[in-house]
Protein backbone atom coordinates (compact mmCIF):
# COMPACT_ATOMS: atom_id res chain seq x y z
CA UNK A 1 0.00 0.00 0.00
CA UNK A 2 2.77 2.39 0.89
CA UNK A 3 4.48 1.39 -2.37
CA UNK A 4 1.48 2.40 -4.39
CA UNK A 5 1.29 5.72 -2.62
CA UNK A 6 5.00 6.30 -3.16
CA UNK A 7 4.68 5.48 -6.87
CA UNK A 8 1.77 7.79 -7.19
CA UNK A 9 3.72 10.53 -5.50
CA UNK A 10 6.62 9.99 -7.86
CA UNK A 11 4.32 10.26 -10.91
CA UNK A 12 2.77 13.39 -9.52
CA UNK A 13 6.17 14.94 -8.86
CA UNK A 14 7.36 14.00 -12.40
CA UNK A 15 4.27 15.55 -13.95
CA UNK A 16 4.80 18.74 -11.97
CA UNK A 17 8.45 18.88 -13.03
CA UNK A 18 7.41 18.46 -16.68
CA UNK A 19 4.85 21.22 -16.43
CA UNK A 20 7.37 23.51 -14.79
CA UNK A 21 9.93 22.70 -17.53
CA UNK A 22 7.41 23.45 -20.29
CA UNK A 23 6.43 26.68 -18.59
CA UNK A 24 10.01 27.86 -18.21
CA UNK A 25 11.19 26.81 -21.71
CA UNK A 26 11.32 29.66 -24.29
CA UNK A 27 8.34 29.79 -26.75
CA UNK A 28 8.92 29.35 -30.52
CA UNK A 29 7.70 32.40 -32.50
CA UNK A 30 7.47 33.21 -36.26
CA UNK A 31 10.27 35.42 -37.59
CA UNK A 32 9.26 38.21 -40.02
CA UNK A 33 11.79 39.82 -42.38
CA UNK A 34 10.91 42.74 -44.65
CA UNK A 35 12.69 42.90 -48.00
CA UNK A 36 12.31 45.63 -50.63
CA UNK A 37 12.91 45.77 -54.39
CA UNK A 38 13.01 48.80 -56.67
CA UNK A 39 13.89 49.84 -60.19
CA UNK A 40 14.32 53.09 -62.07
CA UNK A 41 12.87 53.96 -65.48
CA UNK A 42 14.83 55.93 -68.06
CA UNK A 43 13.00 57.70 -70.84
CA UNK A 44 13.46 56.72 -74.46
CA UNK A 45 12.48 58.59 -77.61
CA UNK A 46 9.50 59.27 -79.83
CA UNK A 47 10.34 58.41 -83.43
CA UNK A 48 9.33 56.80 -86.72
CA UNK A 49 10.32 53.17 -87.12
CA UNK A 50 9.01 53.55 -90.66
CA UNK A 51 7.90 56.94 -91.94
CA UNK A 52 4.94 57.60 -94.26
CA UNK A 53 5.80 57.65 -97.95
CA UNK A 54 3.78 58.83 -100.93
CA UNK A 55 4.62 56.71 -104.00
CA UNK A 56 5.07 57.97 -107.55
CA UNK A 57 1.78 57.98 -109.42
CA UNK A 58 1.14 56.36 -112.77
CA UNK A 59 1.59 58.33 -115.99
CA UNK A 60 -1.34 60.46 -117.10
CA UNK A 61 -2.67 60.33 -120.66
CA UNK A 62 -4.77 63.39 -121.37
CA UNK A 63 -8.24 62.74 -122.80
CA UNK A 64 -10.00 66.07 -122.38
CA UNK A 65 -11.73 65.15 -119.11
CA UNK A 66 -10.88 65.58 -115.47
CA UNK A 67 -9.00 62.48 -114.36
CA UNK A 68 -7.97 60.95 -111.07
CA UNK A 69 -4.72 59.18 -110.29
CA UNK A 70 -4.74 56.89 -107.27
CA UNK A 71 -2.06 55.42 -105.06
CA UNK A 72 -1.72 53.74 -101.68
CA UNK A 73 0.03 55.20 -98.66
CA UNK A 74 2.54 52.76 -97.26
CA UNK A 75 2.34 51.15 -93.83
CA UNK A 76 4.18 53.32 -91.34
CA UNK A 77 5.18 52.76 -87.73
CA UNK A 78 5.61 54.99 -84.68
CA UNK A 79 7.42 54.07 -81.48
CA UNK A 80 6.69 56.14 -78.38
CA UNK A 81 9.27 55.15 -75.78
CA UNK A 82 9.34 58.61 -74.22
CA UNK A 83 7.51 57.46 -71.11
CA UNK A 84 5.73 60.82 -70.79
CA UNK A 85 2.23 59.77 -71.78
CA UNK A 86 1.88 63.15 -73.50
CA UNK A 87 0.49 61.66 -76.71
CA UNK A 88 1.73 62.54 -80.18
CA UNK A 89 0.64 63.67 -83.61
CA UNK A 90 1.79 63.35 -87.21
CA UNK A 91 1.33 66.19 -89.63
CA UNK A 92 2.21 66.61 -93.28
CA UNK A 93 2.89 69.76 -95.27
CA UNK A 94 4.39 70.81 -98.55
CA UNK A 95 8.03 71.88 -98.26
CA UNK A 96 8.52 75.60 -99.03
CA UNK A 97 12.25 75.62 -98.34
CA UNK A 98 14.78 76.52 -101.03
CA UNK A 99 14.98 74.01 -103.85
CA UNK A 100 11.69 72.36 -102.92
CA UNK A 101 8.03 72.90 -103.73
CA UNK A 102 4.90 72.62 -101.54
CA UNK A 103 2.74 72.05 -104.64
CA UNK A 104 3.05 69.96 -107.77
CA UNK A 105 5.42 71.78 -110.10
CA UNK A 106 7.37 71.12 -113.27
CA UNK A 107 10.61 69.29 -112.44
CA UNK A 108 13.65 68.10 -114.41
CA UNK A 109 14.96 64.77 -113.16
CA UNK A 110 18.30 65.21 -114.92
CA UNK A 111 20.43 67.80 -116.69
CA UNK A 112 20.23 66.44 -120.22
CA UNK A 113 19.21 68.52 -123.21
CA UNK A 114 16.01 66.50 -123.54
CA UNK A 115 13.07 68.81 -122.82
CA UNK A 116 15.55 71.62 -122.24
CA UNK A 117 16.61 70.32 -118.83
CA UNK A 118 20.20 71.36 -119.52
CA UNK A 119 19.23 75.05 -119.03
CA UNK A 120 15.84 74.88 -117.29
CA UNK A 121 16.89 75.32 -113.67
CA UNK A 122 17.86 78.96 -113.16
CA UNK A 123 19.59 78.88 -116.55
CA UNK A 124 21.55 75.76 -115.69
CA UNK A 125 21.05 72.01 -115.87
CA UNK A 126 18.80 69.90 -113.68
CA UNK A 127 17.91 68.08 -111.64
CA UNK A 128 15.66 70.68 -110.10
CA UNK A 129 12.45 72.63 -110.45
CA UNK A 130 12.07 74.47 -113.73
CA UNK A 131 12.36 78.23 -113.35
CA UNK A 132 8.97 79.78 -114.17
CA UNK A 133 7.72 76.28 -114.96
CA UNK A 134 4.20 74.93 -114.90
CA UNK A 135 2.54 74.34 -111.54
CA UNK A 136 -0.76 73.01 -110.21
CA UNK A 137 -3.02 74.40 -107.55
CA UNK A 138 -2.50 73.48 -103.92
CA UNK A 139 -4.72 70.76 -102.45
CA UNK A 140 -4.68 68.68 -105.62
CA UNK A 141 -3.89 65.51 -103.66
CA UNK A 142 -5.91 64.10 -100.78
CA UNK A 143 -5.29 61.33 -98.27
CA UNK A 144 -8.11 59.15 -97.00
CA UNK A 145 -7.60 56.93 -93.96
CA UNK A 146 -11.04 55.36 -94.28
CA UNK A 147 -10.63 51.68 -93.43
CA UNK A 148 -7.11 52.15 -92.07
CA UNK A 149 -6.26 50.81 -88.62
CA UNK A 150 -3.47 50.51 -86.07
CA UNK A 151 -1.76 47.29 -84.99
CA UNK A 152 -0.01 47.09 -81.62
CA UNK A 153 3.55 45.74 -81.99
CA UNK A 154 5.99 44.11 -79.58
CA UNK A 155 3.59 43.49 -76.70
CA UNK A 156 2.24 47.04 -76.77
CA UNK A 157 -0.87 47.56 -74.63
CA UNK A 158 -3.11 50.45 -73.82
CA UNK A 159 -5.10 52.95 -75.84
CA UNK A 160 -4.18 53.06 -79.55
CA UNK A 161 -3.78 56.22 -81.63
CA UNK A 162 -6.42 57.29 -84.14
CA UNK A 163 -6.44 58.26 -87.81
CA UNK A 164 -7.58 61.78 -88.65
CA UNK A 165 -8.39 61.63 -92.37
CA UNK A 166 -11.50 59.48 -92.46
CA UNK A 167 -13.18 62.11 -94.62
CA UNK A 168 -9.91 62.93 -96.45
CA UNK A 169 -7.17 65.52 -95.86
CA UNK A 170 -5.44 67.74 -98.40
CA UNK A 171 -1.71 67.18 -98.17
CA UNK A 172 -0.05 69.24 -100.91
CA UNK A 173 0.02 72.73 -99.46
CA UNK A 174 2.33 74.73 -97.22
CA UNK A 175 -0.12 74.42 -94.29
CA UNK A 176 0.41 71.40 -92.02
CA UNK A 177 -2.44 68.90 -91.66
CA UNK A 178 -2.63 66.29 -88.88
CA UNK A 179 -3.18 62.81 -90.31
CA UNK A 180 -3.04 60.78 -87.08
CA UNK A 181 -2.70 61.42 -83.36
CA UNK A 182 -2.58 59.82 -79.92
CA UNK A 183 -4.37 61.49 -77.02
CA UNK A 184 -2.66 62.04 -73.68
CA UNK A 185 -2.05 58.62 -72.15
CA UNK A 186 -2.53 56.87 -75.50
CA UNK A 187 -0.16 55.64 -78.22
CA UNK A 188 2.56 54.50 -75.80
CA UNK A 189 4.63 51.68 -77.22
CA UNK A 190 4.83 50.75 -80.90
CA UNK A 191 1.99 51.00 -83.39
CA UNK A 192 1.84 50.23 -87.10
CA UNK A 193 -0.60 52.08 -89.35
CA UNK A 194 -1.99 49.62 -91.87
CA UNK A 195 -4.92 48.74 -94.13
CA UNK A 196 -4.74 51.84 -96.31
CA UNK A 197 -6.77 51.25 -99.45
CA UNK A 198 -5.26 51.22 -102.93
CA UNK A 199 -6.96 54.58 -103.51
CA UNK A 200 -6.04 56.13 -100.15
CA UNK A 201 -4.09 58.75 -102.11
CA UNK A 202 -6.02 60.53 -104.80
CA UNK A 203 -4.76 63.18 -107.20
CA UNK A 204 -7.25 65.21 -109.27
CA UNK A 205 -5.83 66.21 -112.64
CA UNK A 206 -7.79 69.14 -114.12
CA UNK A 207 -8.47 69.48 -117.82
CA UNK A 208 -6.18 72.53 -117.80
CA UNK A 209 -3.08 70.51 -116.86
CA UNK A 210 -0.32 70.92 -119.44
CA UNK A 211 1.85 68.25 -120.97
CA UNK A 212 5.45 69.18 -120.13
CA UNK A 213 7.53 66.80 -122.21
CA UNK A 214 7.63 63.58 -124.11
CA UNK A 215 10.50 62.00 -122.20
CA UNK A 216 10.52 60.76 -118.62
CA UNK A 217 13.06 63.33 -117.47
CA UNK A 218 10.27 65.85 -116.82
CA UNK A 219 7.44 65.42 -114.36
CA UNK A 220 5.20 67.25 -111.95
CA UNK A 221 6.68 66.83 -108.48
CA UNK A 222 5.92 67.91 -104.91
CA UNK A 223 8.02 67.73 -101.73
CA UNK A 224 6.19 66.60 -98.60
CA UNK A 225 7.44 66.86 -95.02
CA UNK A 226 6.10 64.44 -92.39
CA UNK A 227 6.55 65.58 -88.80
CA UNK A 228 6.08 63.46 -85.66
CA UNK A 229 5.61 65.70 -82.64
CA UNK A 230 4.81 65.27 -78.95
CA UNK A 231 1.27 66.08 -77.89
CA UNK A 232 -2.05 65.20 -79.56
CA UNK A 233 -2.15 68.49 -81.54
Give an account of the 3D structure.
It is a single chain. This protein is mainly beta. It has one domain. The protein contains one helix and 15 strands. It is elongated, with a radius of gyration of 38 Å.
Shape: elongated
- Helical proportion? under 10%
Q: Kindly state the mean pLDDT as a whole number? A: 91
How many domains? Answer: 1
List the helices and strands and how they pair.
Blueprint: H1 2-24, E1 46-50, E2 67-71, E3 76-80, E4 88-94, E5 105-108, E6 128-129, E7 141-143, E8 149-153, E9 162-163, E10 169-170, E11 177-182, E12 189-194, E13 201-205, E14 218-221, E15 224-230
Antiparallel strand pairs: 1-3, 2-13, 3-12, 4-11, 4-15, 5-6, 5-14, 7-10, 7-13, 8-12, 9-11
What key attributes describe this structure?
233 residues; elongated; 1 helix; mainly beta; four-stranded antiparallel beta sheet
Short description:
This protein has 233 residues and is mostly beta strands. The protein has one helix at residues 2-24; strands at 46-50, 67-71, 76-80, 88-94, 105-108, 128-129, 141-143, 149-153, 162-163, 169-170, 177-182, 189-194, 201-205, 218-221, 224-230.
Amino acid sequence: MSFIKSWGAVKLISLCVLLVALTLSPSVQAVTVTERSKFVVYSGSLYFNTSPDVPDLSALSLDGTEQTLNGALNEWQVRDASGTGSGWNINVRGDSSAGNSPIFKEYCTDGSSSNGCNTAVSGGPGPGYVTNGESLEANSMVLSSSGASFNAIGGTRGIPPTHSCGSSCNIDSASPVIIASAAAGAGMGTYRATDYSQSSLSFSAPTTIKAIGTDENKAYRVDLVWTLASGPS
